[in-house]
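Q: Sequence in, structure out?
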Amino acid sequence: EARSCFFVQWDGGAILLDCGVRREAGAPLERVYPALTPEIAKGLRAVFLSHAHEDHTAALPYLRALGYRGPVYATAPTAALVPGFLRKWASYSLGHGDRLPFGEQDLAEVRVTPLPLGTRQVPGLPGLTVTFGRSGHMLGSVWMRFAWEGVGSLLYTGDMALEGRLLAADPLPKGEFLILECAYAGSRLAQDAQYRRLLELAAETVEGNGRVLLPVPPRG
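A: Exactly. Output:
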């Protein structure tokens, strides 16, 4: 439920990795939104998104309200999903009586430019090579590796699911620096064990003439 948002700066500029909110109603703005400023927003060269969930994207209108007018990059599926998640977050916040630190125009004008999987240089970022690889977390989710000529490389995992049955995850490459998402580090759950337990519960329910409902989010 954390507000994933990482500021990366080097001699040639600065980028943002994800721009999310803390999904919490009734909390102060400084707890819900990243610690961004107009100076940070106006100094950014680009924003890169690992996936579309609100805790990684829903502060994008806020970033725009602070003055950011640069590109936002993600995979094509993520680019298609982001507008819906931004609207969902705004509706959730207003429905709980919270104030939005951005306007309708900021929300409507967020644009995400799709990039394919693989390695490439991004316009406006000379000397920087970006690699997207599938992370298995949801539709369109990726890990990202950034390599600077003569400087080094940074690997950002985003949220990952290495044991998923539906979505593939590409092997992680090496990086001199690593930003690792550890949202659920307090427990280790084996995927196969979870499937077995679900099957056992379903069997018990059916044997008792009951019905099994498995509610799941529509997009991962």
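The two ends are 15 Å apart (CA to CA).
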